[in-house]
Amino acid sequence: MIGHLIFRLSIWFLLTSDFSLTNTIIGIVIALALPRGYTAPEKLKEWLKVSWQIIVAIPVAFIEAFEIILRPHQHEEIIMEKVKHQRSPLLVFIDIFLITFTPKTIVVKHHEEGWYAVHKITPKSKSL
């Protein structure tokens, strides 16, 4: 609890740039009044996987950007990707961020049944 209070108060001071007594009291009241979000704790193994995917996504994004510049992609499609089983909202957000981070894909919709609708561009049509 104290850690969250200090974190929120630090953000308050960064936003207001005022360390007066009145502003400090207002900041403490706001920090205490804001609800604290409770989420299910994720396993360390899941976070390590996600961390590795983030590290890998950065060079992939640069490679895809250069591919689009050098060879424009004309074909696009919407594909459905399965959400990994029993993901917390934070991990679902990170999954969507990782898909959208690369230039060739963007998540159009997250279906509550466990699917992402992903818009993807490709160099040429595979159905020819």
Structure, described:
This protein is α+β, with helices and mostly antiparallel strands and 128 residues long. The protein has two domains: 32 residues, no CATH class; 79 residues, Ribosomal Protein S8, Chain: A, domain 1. The protein has four helices and three strands, in the order H-H-H-E-H-E-E. The longest helix is centred in the middle third of the chain and has 27 residues. It is elongated, with a radius of gyration of 21 Å. The termini are far apart.
Short précis:
With 128 residues, the protein is α+β, with helices and mostly antiparallel strands. 53% of the residues lie in helices and 18% in strands. The chain has helices spanning 2-16, 21-33, 44-70, 89-101, and strands at residues 75-82, 105-111, 115-122.
Shape: elongated
Low-confidence regions = none
**In terms of structural class, how would the helical and strand content be classed?**
alpha+beta
Order of helices and strands: HHHEHEE
Tell me the CATH topology of the largest domain.
Ribosomal Protein S8, Chain: A, domain 1
> What's the number of helices?
4
For the report, how would you describe the main beta sheet?
3 strands, antiparallel
Strand order of the largest sheet: 1-3-2
N-to-C terminal Cα separation, in Å? 60 Å
Percent range of helical residues = 40-55%
Gyration radius, to the nearest Å? 21 Å
Oligomer: single chain
What average pLDDT do the residues reach?
85
Count all strands and give the number.
Answer: 3
Keywords: Membrane, Transmembrane, Transmembrane helix
InterPro entries: Cation_antiport_E
Protein name: Cation:proton antiporter
GO molecular function: monoatomic cation transmembrane transporter activity
